Amino acid sequence: MKEKILLEEFKENPRITNENKYHVKKLNWNEDNSFEVTNELINELNIPKQNQNTMKFIFYELTGNIYDHSKFSEGCISGRLINAQYDFRVADNGISIKNSFKNAGYEIENDSDALIKAVNGLSTKNDLGYIERGTGLNNTANIVVNGFDGEFLLISGDAILYINSEKVISQKNPKKLSTGTIVNLRLDLTTKIDMYNYLNQIEYRL
After folding, report:
1. Cα–Cα distance measured from residue 153 to residue 168, given in angstroms and rounded to the nearest whole number
2. Cα–Cα separations (whole angstroms), residue 201 to 40, 118, 120, 147, 171
């Protein structure tokens, strides 16, 4: 069962390192450099051209969440290619998803509750008094899981949320993150997809 392998891998080594052949690109906390580092990572990993725009979209969605919500001082995007599969991580040391919701006045039971609500579109972004529906994590999960038949793993606080094409799993994280959030993706990019077919909001249920 592939989810056991992925879950165990990330629980053993949840933080970003330069080990395991990861290419790591740091995000600037005081100036948005996501465009530059995304292009650098895509070029270094030789991501197939037919899916480069899709991966840029995903990275911009995820780094946008970091800049908009996390209040981070350190963050990065990273990736590697192993056995024809790409592993990507987007991480920050910010205030966590649960605390971001709580600061916005939402009633959140725990980290697990925060993760499933975030993936399903709850947002803290407020423009001109209007609370926007959050699409970044939902779009990412939809493209990765339903478009590429890949795997999506979200870690924040003491919770882990795992999604593949067959199931949604919520678990306690034995190595609780004291700060921040990590998004892990595993997918095969050899087949071209049209990402616009996967931008409709989908509700993920445990």
Report:
1. 10
2. 30, 12, 8, 14, 23
Predicted TM-score of the model (pTM): 0.88
Cα–Cα dist 181/72, whole Å: 10
Residue 8 amino acid letter: E
Q: How far apart are CA 124 and CA 133, in angstroms?
A: 8
Is the CA virtual torsion 177, 122, 163, 88 positive or negative? Answer: negative
User: CA 34 to CA 15: how far, in whole Å?
Assistant: 19
DSSP string across 81-104: EETTEEEEEEEE-SS-HHHHHHHT
Q: What is the pLDDT of residues 187-201, one digit of tens each?
A: 999 999 999 999 998
What integer pLDDT is reported at residue 134 of this predicted model?
Answer: 44
Across the chain, what does the average pLDDT equal? 86
User: Residue 110 in contact with residue 62, Cβ under 8 Å?
Assistant: no
